[in-house]
């Protein structure tokens, strides 16, 4: 007998123009089958990401076939364990967090044990649902790619975003001097609370390179962490230090920038890509180290998840609109236990 569950199912690509994200509707769809090598999780909360917006608009590198259920990170309670993975370390009733390419904006998700980990002690479902993606991305960026050293200047762009706030905290835990850029004074206060030594509002300091040179006494930033691209990247190339590393992890500005290679040569800098999603396939040991490293920082009180707001599943569109409009500080979270705003 086929069972059903509630989810946000996308049946068409959403145009970029207009408030179409707000039209996302909850529907009842056939439940996924938990195979012999899979684990079923009853979802309690799901994290939201900018790439969810891009995926819904058909602009992300991963383009799932229609129809699909979006959502890539979640937390919940194990409800079934396949017979081939009974010794995986996961049992019915365990509190877990996990990641998946799609499927998290739903009551139930079926995944593999490799995509799950046990929730750290003291972490809520809402915190767990948005912890892994941003934290592990920043851990890989700061520890693996940039190899941040104590006393180095680290410039974090979009520092009040979900990824940005984790980058600020992880860089501080490594002994760096952290400079954050933000788009409002309200965001600046949160970034300072997260530990940034200096904060620059780029709505009033669009050309921030001279300010970076001033803070670093002419040296420039040793590491620049850039999820924005566009004009922000262009300006970053003017304040990167000798032997500096620019970490590229996205283009939320909408423009993919370029840099003349003679400038890379003269600056003696490195431009490094950071696509964290591929570590699970290419270097799974890095993925495991990132999970262990970020959970340790959480337990030590050095890495705090910042939740902007929790939304009901029915209000997913409102959460994604908040991300798209750069309204969020930290991350918006979908709580499966929350009632829709229209029914409160």
**Total helical elements:** 11
In total, the number of domains comes to: 2
Largest sheet composition: 7 strands, mixed
Task: Using the 3D structure, state the CATH architecture of the largest domain.
Answer: Alpha-Beta Complex
What's the overall geometry? globular
Structural class: alpha/beta
Average of the residue pLDDT scores: 90
Protein name: NADPH:quinone oxidoreductase
GO molecular function: oxidoreductase activity; zinc ion binding
Family: Belongs to the zinc-containing alcohol dehydrogenase family. Quinone oxidoreductase subfamily.
GO cellular component, one term: mitochondrion
How is this structure best described in words?
- This protein is α/β, with parallel strands linked by helices.
- It has two domains: 4-130 and 305-343, Alpha-Beta Complex (Quinone Oxidoreductase, Chain A, domain 1); 135-277, 3-Layer(aba) Sandwich (Rossmann fold).
- It is built from eleven helices and 15 strands.
- Strands 3, 4, 5, 6, 7, 14 and 15 form a seven-stranded mixed beta sheet that branches. It has a six-stranded parallel beta sheet with strand order 10-9-8-11-12-13, sandwiched between helices. The chain has a two-stranded antiparallel ribbon with strand order 1-2.
- Helix 11 (316-324) links the parallel strand 14 (307-312) and strand 15 (331-335).
- Helix 3 (131-145) packs across helix 4 and helix 3 packs across helix 10 (284-299).
- It is globular.
């Amino acid at each position: 007998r086929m069972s059903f569950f509630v989810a946000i199912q996308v049946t068409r690509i959403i145009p970029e123009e207009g408030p179409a994200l707000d039209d996302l509707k909850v529907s009842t769809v056939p439940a996924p089958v938990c195979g012999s090598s899979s684990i079923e999780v009853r979802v309690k909360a799901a994290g939201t990401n900018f790439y969810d917006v891009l995926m819904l608009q058909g602009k992300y590198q991963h383009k799932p076939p229609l129809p699909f259920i979006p959502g890539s990170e979640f937390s919940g309670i194990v409800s079934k364990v396949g017979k081939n993975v009974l010794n995986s370390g996961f049992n019915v009733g365990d509190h877990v967090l996990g990641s998946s390419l799609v499927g998290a904006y739903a009551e139930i998700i079926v995944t593999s044990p490799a995509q799950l980990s046990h929730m750290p002690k003291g972490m809520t479902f809402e915190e767990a649902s948005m912890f892994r993606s941003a934290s592990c991305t920043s851990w890989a960026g700061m520890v693996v790619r940039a190899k941040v050293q104590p006393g180095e200047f680290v410039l974090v762009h979009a520092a009040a975003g979900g990824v940005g706030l984790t980058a600020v905290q992880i860089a501080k835990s490594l002994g760096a001097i952290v400079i954050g850029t933000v788009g409002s004074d309200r965001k600046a206060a949160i970034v300072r609370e997260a530990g940034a030594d200096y904060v620059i509002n780029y709505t009033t300091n669009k050309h921030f390179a001279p300010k970076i040179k001033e803070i670093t006494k002419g040296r420039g930033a040793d590491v620049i962490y850039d999820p924005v691209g566009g004009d922000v990247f262009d300006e970053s190339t003017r304040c990167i230090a000798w032997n500096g590393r620019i970490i590229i992890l996205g283009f939320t500005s909408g423009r993919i920038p370029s840099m003349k290679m003679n400038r890379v040569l003269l600056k003696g800098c490195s431009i490094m890509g950071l696509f964290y999603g591929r570590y699970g396939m290419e270097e799974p040991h890095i993925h495991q180290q990132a999970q262990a490293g970020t959970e340790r920082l959480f337990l030590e009180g050095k890495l705090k998840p910042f939740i902007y707001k929790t939304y009901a599943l029915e209000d997913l569109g409102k959460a994604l609109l908040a991300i798209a409009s750069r309204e969020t500080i930290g991350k918006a979270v979908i709580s499966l236990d929350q009632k829709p705003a229209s029914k409160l």
